[in-house]
Amino acid sequence: MVSQKYKDMLGAKSVIRELSEWAGRRAKEIGAENVFDFSLGNPSVPVPQEFTDRMMELMQTKDTMELHGYSQSQGILSVRQKFAEFLNKKYDMNYTAEHLFMTTGAAGAVAHAARVVTQPGDEVITFAPYFPEYNHYINQTGAVLKVVPADTKQFQINFEEFDKLLNPKTMAVLINTPNNPSGTVYSTETLKRLAAVLEEKQKEYGHDIFIISDEPYREIIFEGVDAPYVSKFYDNTLSCYSFAKSMSIPGERLGYVAANPKCTDSGLISVMCAQISRGIGHNCPPSIIQIAVADVLGVTSDLSVYEKNMNIIYDTLVSLGFEVVKPGGTFYIFPKALEADSVAFCKKALNYDLVLVPADSFGCPGYFRMAYCVETQKVERAMAALRKFVETEYSM
Amino acid sequence: MVSQKYKDMLGAKSVIRELSEWAGRRAKEIGAENVFDFSLGNPSVPVPQEFTDRMMELMQTKDTMELHGYSQSQGILSVRQKFAEFLNKKYDMNYTAEHLFMTTGAAGAVAHAARVVTQPGDEVITFAPYFPEYNHYINQTGAVLKVVPADTKQFQINFEEFDKLLNPKTMAVLINTPNNPSGTVYSTETLKRLAAVLEEKQKEYGHDIFIISDEPYREIIFEGVDAPYVSKFYDNTLSCYSFAKSMSIPGERLGYVAANPKCTDSGLISVMCAQISRGIGHNCPPSIIQIAVADVLGVTSDLSVYEKNMNIIYDTLVSLGFEVVKPGGTFYIFPKALEADSVAFCKKALNYDLVLVPADSFGCPGYFRMAYCVETQKVERAMAALRKFVETEYSM
Prior knowledge:
The first copy, chain A, is α/β, with parallel strands linked by helices. Helices cover 43% and strands 12% of the residues of chain A. In chain A, strands 2-8-7-6-5-3-4 form a seven-stranded mixed sheet, sandwiched between helices. In chain A, strands 9-12-11 form a three-stranded antiparallel sheet. In chain A, strands 1-10 form a two-stranded parallel sheet. In chain A, helix 9 (188-205) links the parallel strand 5 and strand 6 (210-214). Chain A is globular. Chains A and B meet through helix 1, helix 3, helix 4, helix 6 and helix 7 of A and helix 1, helix 3, helix 4, helix 6 and helix 7 of B.
């Protein structure tokens, strides 16, 4: 018989998917260019030419069996070495290849990291607003995800509420900075305070508490924003990265877990990930993508368009009277809806062909997310629709 | 704290890996060309030019964001449609895109299929000799793998022993034909009998029993061998495939689960796999590889060298007095060792620079595996070493 557990999961259709399907249908009626779809976090800038060139060169010059051959289960050794060197130079760290585990994107990275540092029944704490897939990554390990309510003033960390959830079963804290969906970046002050709390609790509970740091937006940082490297502040940090957003290659599924060389059992994390991988059939990410990305490390897509879009949207939102924190990075912005029920708010927006995502599933009801990985010209046209929507539905 | 469960798994070093490491060290001493390494099932024939050409063409002509963009979690729809059509034509089936789930190789396919049809505590039966990674795929689901002792006469199925293991907890039967490590192919007669037994047991137990059919060697079939498509014989079949062996692209991690359209809940299997995938971070295989392979479906590497190698080795083994079943496909052969302790036998072989794998971990002690994905010229030279080894160590 098919497993009831997974069958049951089919019932819960994601709001984002429903919205995206609506947008697809509407596009057929009025043309895609007239649907202002801010629902999906799909990169909208071309893949760097350097990556394409390197892929072509590899296929023209390398032995095909070597190029497309099995990777080590931790990832190709020479690739991991290059990644370690790159991170060391960029963030003044001391990684070696043995601290790195290559994954199929950030999803693979967070899911493996969570399994390494938890046992069934343990608790993992995250902070609202948060990426709803975290529920799946953590539930599958048998651990339990606990959510700290949002600091809606700055979308940093609500430390008072955090303190209430910490307990001896807390084995990991899952953070995401720059943050999806808020677009904010944890400051040096926030990270220092987080590290201090965890250091203290580790002593009090007599066991490690790991930070699992989900960082796929690490390269999308706006002007003048302080964006510190999380692992610098706290030894027991597992940094999870993906090239999906910085290189616009989400479909190629390349990411990694980088264990801080000073963390507990730092030399075992990567090989333990490989053991986990064997059993679930994740195994290693595609060889040619590993090799090509390692050869162009540091290259990114032209990410400047995201900041341009953000400024246009932020200014419009402020002028329309929205309560909104200015994003420090990513391609998301997270305003407060103009009525308490943000689902109702977003439904009304559809009448203006604006596809916005209510933030209930991000653990922050009353807010909504706009993903502005959209052409700037379209963003500009969308602002007229947004203005009309607000003025028609919410003016006194 | 890091998970003791995965930490413990690090202790058990695989025999194959130890042998392969020995071969690497020895190669440095006497040159790789003088080490006759038959330990690894790594394809030894070039990737088809059509695949490389298509990859290049895609990168030159397609929009990069589309080409490297997110795949649907079940796999790209147009890709799944092409795969369904291909299978329908080749095997006279009725698949549609909804019956297919794209995976990172056969490992991903078998691991997902096992999760779909079992709950913790259920039993899955497989037949020795079997691929030792099955233990990991099944254990991770919480189900228990039960192993039927080998039919050492023909390496088909030992039905008497199978009957003893069947019980109401049996939810799936995991088969692998053409078989690693035996090289044999299940005949029409074997598959008919297997289907009849399972049909009867389904009625008796009042629940489904699925066949999970692991078929990465499906395209490597030798002359005159009857190699039927498993799913034709039994409706509750989930066919698991990988392009690793047929196209020599093991590192690119592309495979699929194809649910027989007549199986129970056939329309749900693929979407359930996608739900499983979300939680473990497997997600979808690389987009560009999905697209390129779908565009050259039916093309394989030149696989004829494996049959050539098999014939050379088989004839030599027979002439040296080995008990061995002639393989019908794959790139493995599975003779009986010349002493009861096949580990001791394989250790002695190292003195002749022959790297053979004892079959204890395949659930069939007393036998050994040779993977002949090796250049033919080297196979020929290895036969002299094999002759010398046998004549020196085992002649009366």
